[in-house]
Amino acid sequence: MAASYSFKSPSLQIPGQSSAGPSTPRHPWTSPPLSTPTHGPPRSPRLQSSPVLLHPLPPSKVLERESRAQSELELDRQIRQRQQERELAEALQDQEWEIQRAAARLDPNGLSIFRNGSGKGKSVDLETKPFARPPQAYELYQAIDKHDIDFIMRVRDHAFPLLLQKSAGEFPIVYAARLGDKHRDVVILLIGALSRYVNHLDKEDFEKKEIKNTLKALRGNLKLAIDNALLPGYSPTLLSSYLQVLIMSEGDAFLHKSTYEISLLLRDPEGSPVKAAEQLVRQFCTKELRGVQGGIHDVEEYVANAALDLVIMATWSLAAQQLDVDPLPTHTFARDLRTYQEMVEATEVNRSKMVKCTKRVRHLLDVLQDLGGDTKKGVQGRLKDVEKALDAGMR
Hints:
The protein is about 55% helix and about 0% strand. By secondary structure, the protein is mostly helical. It has 2 domains: about 90-235, no CATH class; about 250-395, no CATH class. The longest helix has about 45 residues, at about 60-105.
């Protein structure tokens, strides 16, 4: 009897599916369905970026020190740049004045810096148009109101005394200042006119009676302008300019006399030449200006500059007597570091002769060269350093 065999294909059981019902047979080498996930080797977690410096940063103290050094260098550069700009402007102004003086003196029509007659002490500018008739005070005040710079310049050049005359209880420069900041340019023009008048004076002109009267009126204008600038609501920014012109109006006589007085104190081991120089400059300040608590910054800067220059000029005068050379010029007085630079140049030119100076004078010059031109400090700081060295250190 033959045996009977039956073959039954195994069915593939898929998880989640019922085994009931027919299923499609599957060979063992058949690829799994695409929906079936594949599992590879586990991936390493991604590391976060963390930069590392090859060299550590310097300590904060070092960084702070370097930043301060760079700041000081930049400040020094800016100071030198401003100083060069001022020196250039002053040199150009000096050259312009010299040209005007020479042109006025050589004029074939007999023009001079100062005419005789009704135009007492007036400065002549060949570029402005003269008046057909003398200008009146009310016309000048109208020009100030209207910012008529042309008219004011013509008055400056051809009728200067009118700028100093009081009208309706006020002087022109005080009137312009009281009109406020909008008329600041007019005030600056008027200050420049007073300064220009003084700078055009020769040494012998200061002895003339008519010039003396004009200068007296000029000083009165400036002192009133100083006091007016101290009133509430008015700007004190031009005070140093008023004071500068006020001192200039005294001429070289003041500088020569003051230089001599300071030189006597420099010879005296018990003297206080720097303090005395400062007092000589402050005597030009009005009572109201001297009474300002803490002072005005611009004024204090000018006073320090002028006092330091007096000490420098007095010290070189001692050396000049022993070396038989010229004293320092006066036109650089209170103009930043120009007097100091003149002293340095004069010392270099006469370096071979310096052995003729006494030990004390050489020491004075060394102190001033070391401390008087330190551009890392302001002029007030330089004056204090010189005062400590000369008023106390020389005893």
